[in-house]
């Protein structure tokens, strides 16, 4: 129909995949990719706040708020905290009704004994911690890595297990060096880019 060879078409499609205009799903086909959202590090502003400023329709579903005794590895991320009893808040963030990210926050119960009374679906965690408990962010230790989606994450995000996720972890401290939050956010890797500015 177009008078071009299959090799030329394959080469062009491969180039468009490399440029992220198209994406491939093995065994299914090649599809047009939506443009990635470009967000800043969460140490500047929460993802919900950033997306709303960009004009996106964002919603949150609280999966659970539980009081748990942390394992040694997770508890070791906290300085200045005596008790290993924490609130663990798990949320699912939607962008235009499509799952975008899974958020897990660990908050020391000794600092926020009544955290469960807050409406965490509509209020931002950083606002709650700052306004209600006087916990102000002074330092953030942030790591960013690619990880495969677990079966549970894949189910929540409506993707295949093993699909790449962008995992952003923040250890947040106040001006006295007290760690008052550790958070993990697993983003769908094909939906977002994180800009880090130094």
Give a short overview:
The protein has five helices and ten strands; from the N terminus they run αβββαβαββαβαβββ. The protein has 198 residues and is α+β, with helices and mostly antiparallel strands.
How would you characterize this protein structure?
This protein is of the alpha+beta class. It has 2 domains: 1-33, no CATH class; 35-195, Chorismate lyase (3-Layer(aba) Sandwich). 20% of the residues lie in helices and 40% in strands. It contains 5 helices and 10 strands. The chain has helices spanning 6-18, 47-53, 72-75, 125-133, 151-157; strands at residues 22-25, 29-32, 37-40, 58-69, 85-95, 98-108, 139-148, 164-173, 179-188, 192-195. A 6-stranded antiparallel beta sheet has the order 4-5-6-9-8-7. It has a two-stranded antiparallel sheet with strand order 1-2. A hairpin with a 2-residue loop joins strand 5 and strand 6 (98-108).
Task: Outline the secondary-structure elements.
Layout: H1 6-18, E1 22-25, E2 29-32, E3 37-40, H2 47-53, E4 58-69, H3 72-75, E5 85-95, E6 98-108, H4 125-133, E7 139-148, H5 151-157, E8 164-173, E9 179-188, E10 192-195
Parallel strand pairs: 3-10
Antiparallel strand pairs: 1-2, 4-5, 5-6, 6-9, 7-8, 8-9
């Amino acid at each position: 129909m177009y008078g071009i060879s299959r090799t030329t078409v394959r080469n062009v499609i491969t180039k468009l995949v490399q440029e992220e205009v198209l994406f491939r799903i093995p065994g299914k086909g090649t599809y047009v990719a939506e443009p990635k959202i470009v967000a800043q590090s969460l140490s500047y502003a929460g993802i919900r706040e950033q997306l709303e400023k960009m004009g996106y329709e964002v919603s949150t579903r609280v999966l659970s708020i539980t009081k748990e005794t942390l394992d040694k590895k997770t508890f070791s991320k906290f300085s200045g905290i005596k008790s290993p009893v924490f609130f663990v808040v798990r949320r699912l963030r939607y962008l235009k009704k499509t799952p975008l990210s899974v958020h897990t926050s660990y908050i020391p119960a000794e600092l926020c004994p009544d955290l469960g009374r807050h409406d965490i679906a509509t209020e931002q965690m950083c606002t709650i911690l700052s306004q209600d408990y006087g916990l102000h962010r002074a330092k953030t230790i942030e790591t960013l890595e690619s990880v495969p989606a677990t079966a549970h994450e894949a189910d929540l995000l409506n993707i295949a297990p093993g699909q790449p996720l962008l995992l952003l972890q923040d250890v947040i401290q106040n001006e006295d060096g007290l760690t008052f939050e550790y958070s993990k956010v697993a983003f769908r890797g094909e939906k977002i880019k994180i800009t880090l500015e130094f």
